[in-house]
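User: Sequence recovery, please. Input:
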């Protein structure tokens, strides 16, 4: 540990010589994988919404929850991990901010939409899901790339 902290370049070189590769920290691998999974989940929901809307047109709007509701419920439940990330020191964010964001989204999704079947067919659900998905399609690639300190101007603007 002393060598790793005092001389990180020497440690990497020694690790490369001994192992033949430089091992990544488990934290980085986990965060990258988590963000990649969340991104692909929201990308799948986005694709379903676009394909069904192209196929059915305005008839799809009341059916949005039926088509992507379960996917978004699963992804929003997995967002609870984003509260734990700063708690365990995996990310620099605030536990309070993450809690408010996740609790707010889960309240809207589970308490207001899932609990009320009449609400599920309203056009506002289509637009809300679309907004949520587009936001996440920008956010998760940003987090994924920031894990390895990669900046792409299109995403980081």
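Assistant: Recovered sequence (157 residues):
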């Amino acid at each position: 540990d002393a060598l790793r902290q005092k001389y990180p370049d020497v440690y990497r070189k020694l690790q490369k010589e001994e192992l033949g590769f430089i091992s990544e920290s488990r934290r980085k691998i986990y965060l990258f994988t988590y963000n990649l999974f969340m991104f692909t989940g929201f990308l799948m929901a986005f694709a379903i919404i676009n394909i069904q809307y192209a196929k059915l047109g305005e008839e799809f709007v009341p059916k949005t929850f039926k088509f992507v509701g379960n996917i978004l419920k699963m992804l929003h439940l997995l967002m609870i991990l984003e509260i734990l990330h700063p708690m365990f020191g995996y990310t620099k964010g605030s536990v309070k901010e993450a809690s408010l964001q996740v609790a707010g989204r889960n309240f809207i999704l589970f308490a207001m939409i899932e609990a009320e079947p009449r609400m599920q067919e309203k056009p506002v659900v289509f637009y809300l899901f679309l907004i949520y998905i587009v936001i996440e399609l920008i956010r998760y690639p940003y987090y994924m790339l920031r894990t390895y300190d990669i900046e792409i101007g299109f995403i980081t603007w």
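The chain has a mean pLDDT of 90.
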